[in-house]
Amino acid sequence: MTAFGPRMLRSLGPWATALMVTLAQPGVADSPDSPPPADAVITADAPATAAVLQPFTVNYRVNVSKIPTPIRATLTLTEAGDDQYRMGLAVKSMLMDNSEQSLFQWRNCQPHTLTYQHDFEGFRRERHHRMTFNWDTLRVSGHSSADDEGQDDFDYSITEDTLDELTMLLKARCIMQEGVSQYQLTSAYGKRLRTHFIHVVGEETMNTPLGRLRTIKFEKRRDQDSKRRTIFWLAPDLDYLLVRARHVEGTGLFGELKMTGYDGPYNALKK
């Protein structure tokens, strides 16, 4: 794994790890007293949008080119008071430590980031970002430190729909209501803005800790013609819960995230 570990695992953070964004939905319909049979596909009659979010914890395992690794990831969402939420992602092993934190407000089906930070250490590489979003002036400022880019303070303009890379997929449940097959998102990360091209490519039914779920398969590229891409599977009947994510670096080389545990509003669906 050391031959390609640094590039692959750094590619998993922040974007591929950001794919682990999972929303809990209030107002979920009452679940059956007993779990569904193994061949049943779970659906939930929940509204597509919500005024508030509910806390959750989701666990994932990281595989590299279908080879299991000891790397585990945990994504959490907690209430922070004053109409604010805090999302945190921790990806840890003996070889690396990747951590992201986003403090944001949820307004009109969009996360409005207040602060974002990303720290990566491993394989003799480091990356640290501290960012503050000012929505009154539509600017983001902060400090970046990376072994391949040095240290720098920054301050630049953003638009009303600019996201951070951890809460980016919170937009999926709103955008998909419009019946689109492709869309673009803009995120602020470190010293620059990033554009993400996202395509809906099909549906699959998967086994998960919550039973069998119908999922929509998305593909994301930073450039329309890029060979590097990220594929992710979201469960629309559970408010676009992330089931799996795969980041492809090249032929036969990819990192994959698989959900292994869940604690949140859908606990009653567990077998």
Automatic annotation (TrEMBL):
Superkingdom of origin: Bacteria
Signal peptide: 1-29
Pfam families per record: DUF3108
Stored InterPro entries: DUF3108 (IPR021457)
Keywords, alphabetical: Signal
Descriptive protein name: DUF3108 domain-containing protein
Lineage of origin: Bacteria, Pseudomonadati, Pseudomonadota, Gammaproteobacteria, Oceanospirillales
Source organism: Isoalcanivorax beigongshangi
